[in-house]
Amino acid sequence: MRTIKTCIFDLDGVICDTAKYHFYAWKTLADRLGIIFTHKDNERLKGVSRMESLEILLSLSDKIYTTGEKLVFAEEKNKNYVDYITKMGKDEVLPGVTEFLEYCREQGIKTALGSVSRNAETILKRLKLEPYFDAVIDGTKVVNAKPDPEVFLKGAAETGAKPEECVVFEDAFTGIQAAKAAGMPAVGIGDAKVLSNADFVIRGFEELRGEQLIARIRQF
Q: pLDDT per residue over 92-127, tens digit each?
């Protein structure tokens, strides 16, 4: 039976739904640049760093932009995004998340956030979830974006766990890839067809009680 010492959570789509705010922020930039950007295009940005996301967006245009222009665009998108998330409240925590974090606390299981977002600390503060996390590994602490396993390996290290003693909760295919590359089992949050590389998939944390979820993971 698997020993679980640390649960590592992605942020967007797992703890809360900030994906819509990312879309609004990118769409605002795209509209200004005269680029058609749809929800389908936005799906390609899941789990991808800001600069890589920008490159995907700009690939929808025939125009060539300089490095300087791209840096300005990235900062503009981030400002748009921050404007949205600073208005978030704890009511935007996804169903079942707080209860599962509390269960982990009761069981002595450490928790870490593993996200490429550079705004993770701000979001956790707005959601009133800071006290639930033993470590926060975000875009300010890693060099490589998912599917590179760096963010999850650092989460394990900061909580004193071996990779095989961790479990990752992710809503993106690339995030599951990163977990696997780190040698960690991965629970997908969302659509089982999209997250076919996960060990198993749940729609959300409200689907199973904490003890049921941990018991199932221990069977991997």
A: 999 999 999 999 999 999 999 999 888 899 999 999
Query: Is 10 marked active-site?
Result: yes
pLDDT in the model for residue 117: 86
* From 12, 138, 171, 199, active-site residue: 12
Candidates 98, 47, 75; CA nearest to 204 is 98
Is residue 217 a contact partner of residue 4, using CB atoms and an 8 Å limit?
yes
| Tens of pLDDT, residues 50-61 | 899 999 999 999
Residue 79 vs residues 29, 73, 86, 148, 178: alpha-carbon distances, Å: 11, 10, 11, 26, 28
Distance CA 142, CA 144 (A): 6
Q: Amino acid identity, residue 122?
A: T
Which residue stretches of 86-128 are H helix? 97-107, 120-127
- For the question of residue 171 being annotated catalytic, the response is no
Burial class (CB in 10 A: 0-12, 13-18, 19+), 182: buried
**Position 182 confidence tier, pLDDT thresholds 50, 70, 90:** very high
User: Hey, which residues does 195 pair with through a beta bridge?
Assistant: none
